[in-house]
Amino acid sequence: MNVDVLLGLQWGDEGKGKIVDVLTPNYSVIARFQGGPNAGHTLEFEGNKHVLHSIPSGIFRKDAINIIGNGVVIDPIVFAGELEKLEPYGIELSKRLMISKKAHLILPTHRLIDAAAEQAKGDKKIGSTLKGIGPAYMDKTGRNGLRVGDLLLPNFSQKYNELKEKHLGILAHYPAFEFDLATMETAWFEKVERLKNLPCIDSEHHLNRLIKEGQKILAEGAQGTMLDVDFGTYPFVTSSNTVTAGTCTGLGVPPTSINKVIGIFKAYCTRVGSGPFPTELNNETGEKMRQEGNEFGSTTGRARRCGWLDLVQLKYAIMVNGVSELYMMKADVLSIFEEINVCEVYEINGERITDFPYDVHSLAVTPIYTALKGWKQDLTGLNSYEQAPQALKDYVQYLEQQLEVPIRLVSVGPDRSQTLFK
Ligand code: GDP
Ligand code: IMO
Ligand code: MG
Predict the structure, then answer these.
(1) Quick one: which of 314, 223, 229 has its CA closest to 267?
(2) pLDDT exceeds 80 at position 1
(3) How does strand 339-348 pair with strand 419-421?
(4) In 152-267, at which residue ranges do the beta strands (DSSP E only) sit?
(5) 99 sits in which H/E element
(6) How far, in Å, CA of 14 to CA of 418, rounded?
(7) Looking at residue 134, what is its pLDDT?
(8) Are 309 and 293 in contact (CB under 8 A)?
(9) Cis before residue 235, ω within 30 degrees of 0?
(10) Whole-number Å distance between alpha carbons of 15 and 267
(11) Which residues surround ligand 3, an ion (CB under 5 A)?
């Protein structure tokens, strides 16, 4: 039971990167188990702001080993860009960063197919980050994919060309659009060399050995539960399992090795991209949240949609993940509101519903809100939870009663230090 899991309970961007960085000193290893360059995990410390996409968020702490697990999909170009941005920090990457040989590669043609498929969907588009995630996972489950371990094979070029040809065949079915594949490929093959210089390992063996030795591992999720390919708001989801179960398949660790499941949520809700969002505020209040929370995507810069906290959704996420403790993020953003709304129940066709519905995107959902008193006080300078205003403590207590899981951390700003343990 040495593996703790930290994952997002909403539609991503809950603040996972910040918290993994905060928790890293308690662990020997930080391991990403799914997703890829669609993720953008932001860390702030000592005046630095840093966004990671495929590299685990433990990379800035001195001793931790960071592992990119088999469940992750890697684009060598994005990955090399991340490595370059780490250079000023003088991190000994060959000792601190390892990649599973079983992680799948995102090819330039995956990105082209992603773009073509989204374009063809018209107003039904997913709002993908266009990083080639969907097509890469399709090749994985379709048993066509190329893996990091394949880069070491003498016939890699042949394998690459065979898959590329398949992709060009797929692209021919879409309306023509312009692209310069040769330039994309040159960059890709150049950056592949950078990736190959890092330890490419059998990470499932490595992790299980560490578990046997009693070392502590933190599994870092990407995206959020409502973007999970099985349990999210399908089809407006990503193409991997973002839930706790994804830890086992994405790292090769057994379910019996999992100890804590830390579920992280914002004190309100955001979503970037298309798809249902029952408590979305398409009004001045939503705009105020966006500005105060600086809700613009870490990967694409797109404005995030904002709304009140949704307990129907959150209870569902807690259930499918088996969350044992909760961390609440961005409490400081709500300091601007006199009154804070929380959705306890949905009304659908005159009926009150508390089970998150299958076809939420095709239903007219009216969220029924409970209004709570705001704290109207700047929280960003607080040093301990005891100092927090009573109205915030009441908000936290109300949520704990509703969700039946303890809230162990409240975050009051983007910096590492703006973190209150309870
Ligand atoms: P992730 O994808 O879950 O790692 O989250 P992102 O990094 O995409 O988005 C979270 C954003 O909120 C980042 O810009 C963080 O720096 C910022 N952030 C994290 N925690 C807090 C907080 O408690 N308060 C405020 N104001 N910002 C926060
Ligand atoms: P982190 O790890 C928020 C969203 C996209 C789109 C859908 C599918 O930073 O929380 P994809 O590129 O996977 O095909 O996009 O999922 N999405 C995210 N939204 N945070 C993320 O990651 C996301 N990764 C993907 O906006 O709606
Ligand atoms: Mg993010």
Answers:
(1) 314
(2) no
(3) unpaired
(4) 200-201, 217-220, 258-266
(5) strand 97-100
(6) 15
(7) 98
(8) no
(9) yes
(10) 11
(11) 13, 40, 298
pTM, entire model: 0.97
Cα-Cα end-to-end distance for the chain: 23
Beta bridge partners of 43: 50
Q: Calculate how far, in angstroms, residue 376's C-alpha sits from the geometric centre of ligand 2.
A: 32
How far apart (Å, rounded) are the C-alpha atoms in residues 94 and 2? 25
For range 285-292, the mean pLDDT: 97
Determine what percent of the chain is predicted with pLDDT higher than 90.
Answer: 96
295 within ligand 1 shell (Cβ under 6 A): no
Q: Is residue 145 lining ligand 1, measured as CB closer than 6 Å?
A: no
Angstrom distance (rounded) from CA 86 to CA 108 = 24
By C-alpha distance, which of 103, 49, 111 is closest to 77?
111
Q: Which ligand is nearest to the CA of 37?
A: 2
13 is catalytic: yes
User: 172-176, 251-255, 256-260, 265-269: which has the minimum mean pLDDT?
Assistant: 172-176
For residue 301, the model assigns a pLDDT of 87
- pLDDT at residue number 300: 83
Our answer to whether residue 228 is catalytic in this structure is no
> CA 5 from chain center: how many Å?
13
